[in-house]
Design a protein that fits this description.
The complex is a heterodimer of chains A (318) and B (334). With 318 residues, chain A is an alpha/beta fold. Chain A is 30% helix and 20% strand. In chain A, the strands form 2 sheets. Chain A has a 6-stranded mixed sheet, sandwiched between helices. A 4-stranded antiparallel sheet of chain A has the order 2-1-4-5, covered by helices on one side. Chain B has a domain of 74 residues. Chain B contains 10 helices and 12 strands. In chain B, the strands form 2 sheets. In chain B, strands 6-7-8-3-9-10-12-11 form an 8-stranded mixed sheet, with helices on both faces. In chain B, α7 links the parallel β7 and β8. Chain B is globular and about 65 Å long. Classes of the chains: A alpha/beta (318), B alpha/beta (334). At the A-B interface, α6 and α7 of A face α7, α8 and α9 of B. The structure holds adenosine-5'-triphosphate (2 copies) and magnesium ion (MG) (2 copies). One magnesium ion binds next to α1 of chain A.
């Protein structure tokens, strides 16, 4: 069952701030589509500024698209506003990168976690809410002894568990996770990734998982969308993307992965990044692409039937 | 890698931390946050200092330039010697010469390390003239050379710009150029690529390694990322709760990690995990300064811990060529 589908989303930000006069409008998301099934994890990867977070905010209706459609559990919610939208918000919830910033330092943990219930379960009594918080914290591997403490009394990993509990309390069908483990140590990261897997197995929750760490993505995701300059340039199953990707940008991202053992130094990577920046016309990746041809200047950026937006895809992918 | 003790009394070129303990003030009480750390940095070699957040890596790194002292960090014992001379015996004047001139530092956050209200040019030139007796014009030329050396072709243009106008990767290049301003012998780099995009990280690493080789620099790389260690380091020291628990050459540590902490830390990386299996984890947390146990600091989280581990464990209780470990249970399966 499709729990989240977006079609041809576009979002342009007007030039702002001190560069208003000289600045260009920023096309942050261009013709982006994807479909997320219950129980599935779709990862969005790409460099800083490629439009990952904006795509997520559009999908969550925290930001209105210039064009395109958004479906939650099959229902078109693109034009819903106000109370109509609020009522449906429990469907899709978010976990942020920085567990410090996302919790109110003056609120007790149980109050922070219970916030969503105020809106979505006004029928519940205070006692019912506390019970629900305790149960949700337990699901996230925290016992109820911390309910009346404040965020600063918890470690980074515990705070991220609290952040997850806070999103889960309204029983969403989709969780958007924007770099949820990037601020954590590997040891704590492992705990959180295991927790997410376990929750998904038990609840059939779907994840939209934003990350720049490809090892994490490979571990957690079923499918991957690679974004560059606001566009999805390649999408596919994890095994296909990591095994034999077709887009030169995906290849460059994979090549930039850290090695795992000193013996892999000088592993003879084909370094295929030749320049910097991006093109406003034709294929956006042209300035960096070692395989660019004249015809790339007129490319429309559309994904082909294999899920790759390139006129000259790398061989090896059928 | 040199054995501990081997160098005492010599004045061979090296930067040596010996039994260095640092204390901080927590709730009005002075407690050690770094405990008897011994490290040796040599020209031409890259030493990685790894460990989880809060283990004392940055405190150790900053102590080398005697930074942090104004934030309440104080030496409680031990010494730091540059080519045999104690940094703690130096006058302010001598220390100023050492900072930047012999030992330079690169920090994690390239934005806060640059002043947003001055142009790149004025900041680079200022650093150069602090250490080298050059005219403004000569210093400017050196600034251009330095920026070109870190891969900025349009150096003249960059000099005119303000930090705001540069990407994170460009700023880190500028900071590396500034660190190189007075031709230091040693560079202390605290998480130099953590704040950068993956695609940029690789290039900054390549740049640092290139400079390190060409100038025979001794580089201390502080990181929590074993990938970076694999990529850059000759030697590795693993830190846990203020202590070095294991050190050795990079191939020793990767092929035969001996301390249960090192083994656990390397094992929970998703890139080496088995597909479809939960990741191995280390339960519990790093104890903060003031809450260290009397014995092995890792005992509480360690699958191999026994009663013996409640007594202090010597730093070199287990050793062999190029490898030292603070553990009584080396070789036992976890
Ligand atoms: N509110 C906004 N106003 C103006 N521009 C914006 C706004 N939000 C995002 N942008 C711009 O849109 C582009 C995409 O930003 P976005 O935050 O989606 O990138 P990202 O892929 O999430 O990057 P990162 O990995 O750094 O988080 C960037 O160029 C960014 O500067
Ligand atoms: N000036 C200070 N006063 C009191 N405590 C301090 C001070 N500086 C650091 N600490 C404490 O000392 C311990 C070690 O800190 P340090 O910054 O060296 O850790 P680190 O290994 O660099 O961690 P990270 O990977 O998060 O940067 C931490 O518990 C920290 O809270
Ligand atoms: Mg983002
Ligand atoms: Mg640090």
């Amino acid at each position: 069952m499709s729990v989240l589908r977006v079609e041809q989303l576009n979002k342009t930000f007007a030039a702002g701030g001190m560069f208003k006069a000289i600045g260009k409008a920023k096309r942050a998301v261009i013709d982006t589509s994807f479909d997320l099934q219950a129980g599935e994890t779709l990862a969005i990867v790409g460099e800083s500024g490629s439009g990952k977070s904006t795509t997520a905010r559009l999908a969550m209706q925290l930001l209105a698209p210039d064009s395109g459609q958004i479906y939650w559990a099959g229902e078109n919610v693109t034009h819903l506003r106000g109370a109509e939208l609020r009522r449906r918000r429990s469907h899709i919830q978010m976990v942020f990168q920085d567990p410090y910033a996302s919790l109110n330092p003056r609120m007790k943990i149980w109050q922070s976690v219970a916030e969503g219930l105020r809106v979505h379960r006004p029928d519940m009594t205070n006692i019912q809410r506390r019970d629900k918080v305790a149960a949700t914290l337990a699901l996230c591997g925290l016992d109820d002894s911390g309910m009346d403490r404040y965020p600063h009394q918890f470690s980074g990993g515990q705070r991220q568990r609290i952040g997850i509990a806070r999103a889960l309390i309204v029983e969403p069908k989709v969780l958007v996770l924007d770099e949820p483990v990037s601020a954590l140590d590997v040891s704590v990261q492992a705990q959180i990734l295991n927790l997410l897997k376990e929750i998904q197995l038990n609840t059939n929750l779907a994840y939209l998982f934003i990350s720049h760490d490809l090892s994490v993505v490979r571990h957690i995701a079923d499918r991957v969308s690679v974004m560059f300059a606001g566009q999805v340039v390649e999408q596919g199953k994890v095994a296909d993307i990591f095994g034999h990707c077709a887009h030169p940008y995906t290849r460059a991202l994979l090549d930039a992965r850290p090695i795992t053992h000193p013996d892999e130094r000088n592993r003879g990577d084909v370094v295929m990044v030749i320049g910097e920046g991006m093109s406003d016309t034709g294929c956006a990746y042209q300035p960096r692409c070692a395989f660019k041809q004249d015809s790339c200047a007129a490319f429309d950026g559309k994904l082909n039937s294999q899920g790759c937006a390139c006129l000259y895809p790398l061989s090896g992918r059928s | 890698m040199l054995e501990r003790g081997e160098v005492i009394g010599h004045t061979a070129a090296m930067l040596e931390l010996s039994d260095l303990s640092l204390s901080v003030s927590i709730q009005g009480k002075r407690v050690d946050a770094v405990s008897a750390v011994s490290l040796c940095l040599q020209p031409g070699r890259v030493l990685g200092l790894v460990g989880e957040s809060g283990c004392g890596k940055s405190l150790t790194a900053q102590a080398i330039l005697r930074l942090g002292e104004h934030q309440g960090v104080a030496k409680s014992s031990g010494d730091i010697r540059l080519d045999g001379n104690s940094l703690f015996a130096m006058s302010n004047e001598q220390l100023r010469k050492v900072r930047g001139g012999h030992i330079a530092m690169i920090f994690q956050e390239p934005m806060t390390a640059l002043n947003p209200v001055f142009s790149i040019g004025s900041q680079v030139v200022e650093v150069i003239r602090l250490h080298l007796d050059l005219t403004k014009q000569q210093a400017r030329q050196r600034a251009i050379d330095l920026l070109q050396n870190v891969g900025m072709q349009d150096a003249e243009q960059v000099l005119k710009q303000y930090p705001d106008a540069l990407s994170g990767g460009m700023r880190q290049r500028v900071l590396i150029a500034m660190a190189m301003a007075a031709d230091p012998d040693y560079i202390i780099a605290d998480e130099p690529t953590t704040a950068l995009d993956v695609s940029v990280q690789k290039r900054i690493i390549a740049l640092l390694l290139d400079l390190q080789k060409k100038r025979n620099l001794g580089l201390l790389l502080v990181t929590h990322d074993f990938g970076l260690v694999a990529e850059m380091c000759d030697d590795v020291a693993v830190m846990y709760a203020g202590q070095i628990v294991e050190s050795g050459t990079v191939s020793e540590i990767f092929d035969h990690p001996a301390h249960p902490y090192t083994r656990a830390l390397m094992g929970c990386r998703p890139e080496v995990s088995l597909p479809g299996k939960p990741l191995p984890v280390i339960s519990g947390q790093v104890p903060p300064p003031g809450r260290w146990p009397a014995g092995c600091h890792f005992a509480k989280r360690c699958p191999l811990a026994t009663d013996e581990c409640n007594n202090p464990v010597a730093a070199d209780v287990w050793s062999r060529a190029n490898h030292v470990t603070r553990c009584l249970h080396v070789g036992e399966p976890c």
